[in-house]
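can u do me a favor
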């Protein structure tokens, strides 16, 4: 028997088939597909029906390969959602969290409800695109969607609903809305009411590892497949990625490295205090009641978006080529703060980087190599900064850093991260989210006893590369310069 994980990222998705032997996990990529957002006029949307189509393709490929699926689970990026009418039909195409309609909305909400109160209730970091501000933006724009809407489902909840016909809210993703209260272990209905969002949209919450339906009859007929159980996993991809961190003990730091870089640690309880509020750390729900104390760092998005800009100008570069150019460029000539809001929305990233450098009195990178070098060095520096903040907040000292996710294919970034933090980096597995998704399904079926057995098996099954720090003095000096430039 095998199981299937659908892992949907902000630029691509995949269907990964998992098999468990006595001691090892085996993962096979059955289907991979693009997930390109679609700009329509001023709005940026996800192509949700295409994603559902690709999920069906994954199911068909499993069938054609003769697999008997024990269960399936879906994880995706957080914060985004669909609205459904009273007949259970999707209203419109979900907005992309990088759509500009949330600009300035967070501050408008604070005028009504102070940030400190929102944080005390939810423990979630302030990102302008959190679900709470997206809903507020729709309300503010008097969107007709809100008049018609009867239910609200996060992206994996929505796709799961398409598959099963059942509506549930999965816990890990629900926490990212900034409308969930970890103390009450439920939606914060008071907060929802204060914002005048309909409380009836927010139904009961299910936890990772719960069976939440099976493939509905119409889809079974359409694809000629049997009734496969559908499981709630850590449906927030970062939750699944952290479940797959091959840590040896409870005290570990991780960096989930993809379009976003998510850095932090796993704890039994959320850290909701003034310090966490000031540093803008988050407490996202994880598996088996754990919380991820972490911070979002803009991540490889800046490089992906730069590459798109260069492609628009006529040439598509492979990431390996860009990394090679970065190695040839001189070291530490310009820094950016990757988390400056000017890098959040789609646009001409190389031009934005030049503008940032000029504004901060630096020489702007002109060549591709210098631009890529600036991005990767700045990311490594921001990792160092965030690593220290995580240690402070968690009151722990970490021996090194686990890196998981597709970003670890960028070996230069792994090495520079190790150089920057002055500690070893253990990089792997690259398919963290899919593996964490599979692991939760195996724990639910009893084939793995718990997350620690799962992490041991993951460590034995997948490649993990160690990077030791190099050139410590140069990186220390450059870090001081980075702090001055970015005023962190
Ligand atoms: C990473 C991620 C991250 C969220 C962002 C919207 O894919 O889920 O954890 O903050 O997307």
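np, heres the sequence
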């Amino acid at each position: 028997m095998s199981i299937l994980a659908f892992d949907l990222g902000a630029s691509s998705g995949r269907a990964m088939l998992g098999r468990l032997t006595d001691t090892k996990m085996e993962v096979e990529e059955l289907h991979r597909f693009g997930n390109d957002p679609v700009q329509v006029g001023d709005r940026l949307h996800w192509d949700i029906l295409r994603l559902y189509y690709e999920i069906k393709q994954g199911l068909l490929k499993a069938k054609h390969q003769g697999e008997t699926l024990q269960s399936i689970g879906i994880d995706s990026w957080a914060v985004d959602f669909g609205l459904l009418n009273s007949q259970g039909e999707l209203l419109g195409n979900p907005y992309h969290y990088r759509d500009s309609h949330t600009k300035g909305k967070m501050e408008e909400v604070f005028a009504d409800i102070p940030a400190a109160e929102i944080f005390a209730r939810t423990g979630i970091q302030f990102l302008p695109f959190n679900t709470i501000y997206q809903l507020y933006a729709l309300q503010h724009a008097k969107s007709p969607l809100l008049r018609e809407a009867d239910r609200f489902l996060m992206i994996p909840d929505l796709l799961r609903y398409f598959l099963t016909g059942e509506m549930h809210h999965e816990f890990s993703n629900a926490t990212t809305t900034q409308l969930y209260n970890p103390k009450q272990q439920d939606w914060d209905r008071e907060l929802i009411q204060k914002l005048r969002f309909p409380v009836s949209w927010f139904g009961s919450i299910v936890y990772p590892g719960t069976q939440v339906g099976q493939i509905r009859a119409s889809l079974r007929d359409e694809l000629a497949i049997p009734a496969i159980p559908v499981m709630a996993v850590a449906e927030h991809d970062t939750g699944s990625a952290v479940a797959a961190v091959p840590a040896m003990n409870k005290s570990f730091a991780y960096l989930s490295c993809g379009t976003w870089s998510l850095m932090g640690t796993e704890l039994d309880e959320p850290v909701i205090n003034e310090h966490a509020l000031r540093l803008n750390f988050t407490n996202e729900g994880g598996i088996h009641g754990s919380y991820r104390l972490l911070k979002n760092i803009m991540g490889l998005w800046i490089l992906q978006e730069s590459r798109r800009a260069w492609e628009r100008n006529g040439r598509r570069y492979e990431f390996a080529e860009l990394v090679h150019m970065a190695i040839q460029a001189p070291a530490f000539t310009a820094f950016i703060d990757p988390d400056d809001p000017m890098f959040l929305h789609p646009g001409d990233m190389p031009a934005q980087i030049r503008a940032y450098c000029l504004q901060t009195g630096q020489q702007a990178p002109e060549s591709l190599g210098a631009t890529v070098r600036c991005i990767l060095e700045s990311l490594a520096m921001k990792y160092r900064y965030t690593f220290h903040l995580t240690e402070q907040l968690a009151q722990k000292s970490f021996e090194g850093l686990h890196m998981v996710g597709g970003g670890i294919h960028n070996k230069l970034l792994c090495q520079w991260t190790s150089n920057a933090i002055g500690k070893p980096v253990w990089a792997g597995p690259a398919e963290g989210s899919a593996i964490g998704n599979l692991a939760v399904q195996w724990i639910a079926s009893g084939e793995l006893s718990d997350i620690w057995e799962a992490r041991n098996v993951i460590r034995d099954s997948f490649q993990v590369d160690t990077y030791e720090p190099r050139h410590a003095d140069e990186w220390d000096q450059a870090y001081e310069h980075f702090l001055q430039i970015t005023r962190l």
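Residues 337 and 486 are 6 Å apart (CA to CA). hope that helps!!
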